[in-house]
Structures are given as structure tokens and as C-alpha cells.
Amino acid sequence: MNDAGCFDDFLGRIIFDNAGNPDVAACAELSENLCDTFTGLSLLLDTDIDDFIKLNKERNCNAAHPNEFHDKVFIHLKAVLFELKDQSQCGIEPTQALLDSISGQELIILRSNRNNALRNVIARKAQNVPNATVLALTQTNWRDFKTSVLHSLGRIY
């Protein structure tokens, strides 16, 4: 995951100029100012990418040759970031072959997975499930304790 060449190839697959060619200057700016490897990407937060977008827009206001990124670039970066973090939480280290294979179709799937997960988080937060209380276990209340535990476990979503 620390192969900068692999990450540069990935950037070349998602950052294009108006002619449809990889935008080398934009790829270089992103590598220099945001991250230059998949490991570096996996350490970022979504807010780091948002901050880079704001900084880049401010720089472009005064630049003779601005590096303007299409919004999809950052959507794709966030999708890959989400996937890297999700795999990390599952104890899976992404292989070089997997990272090399990230294509346009794969990015659409990753973006869809991220959007679904974010929608699920919002839906869970919107649920108003009252807190369940579990009785303290004593020598005389086993049945009541068991009932309260089973009730609590039944509320886990």
C-alpha cells in the first residue's frame, strides 16, 4: 500500500484533463498536498479531503494555471478511503493487486457502498429507540434478569 507508483497510476485513472488524458499536474498537486500513497489516503479523514478542496479553490483564484479538479475526483477518493477504512476495521490488508484493479466500474460500486453506509448511519440516528435497562443480577431475580437481558438484546440493530 505504500507504493507511490501504484497510487499515481490510480490517480491517473480518475483525474483527467478536458481532452480525456490523465492530468499530470493535477495528479502531482494532489500527491504533494494531500497524500501520495494508499496508506496515506487511509490515514485521512473526509474533512481532510474537504479542506484540500477549499484550499485548492482559494489557490485557483490567484493562479495563472489553476489545477481544477472535477468533483468526482474527491467523491472517488472518499469512496476508496471508506473502503480502505472498512477493510482495515475487518482486519483485511488490501493487496497490491486489488488496489491496481480499481477501475471506473469498481469506483461506482465503492461509491454506492459508501453512500448506502452513510444513509444507514443517518437512518439509525433518526430512530428513537428508548434505552433498555438491564437489572442487576442477584441471587433471587434470575428470571427478571434474564428477561431484561433478552429484551435488551432484541433491540440491537
Describe the structure.
With 157 residues, this protein is an all-alpha fold. It folds into 2 domains: 4-126, no CATH class; 130-157. It contains 8 helices and no strands.
User: What is the tally of beta strands?
Assistant: 0
Unreliable spans: none
Distance between the termini: 34 Å
Fraction of residues in β-strands: under 5%
Tally of helical runs: 8
Number of domains: 2
Estimated structural class: mainly alpha
**Fraction of residues in H or I helices:** 55-70%
Helix-strand sequence: HHHHHHHH
Task: Report the C-alpha radius of gyration, rounded.
Answer: 22 Å
- Give the overall silhouette: elongated
The largest β sheet comes out as: none
Mean pLDDT: 83
Layout of strands and helices, then pairs:
Layout: H1 4-14, H2 24-33, H3 38-42, H4 46-62, H5 71-89, H6 96-100, H7 104-126, H8 142-153
Short account of what is shown:
By secondary structure, this protein is an all-alpha fold.
Q: Which descriptors would you attach to this protein?
A:
mainly alpha, 2 domains
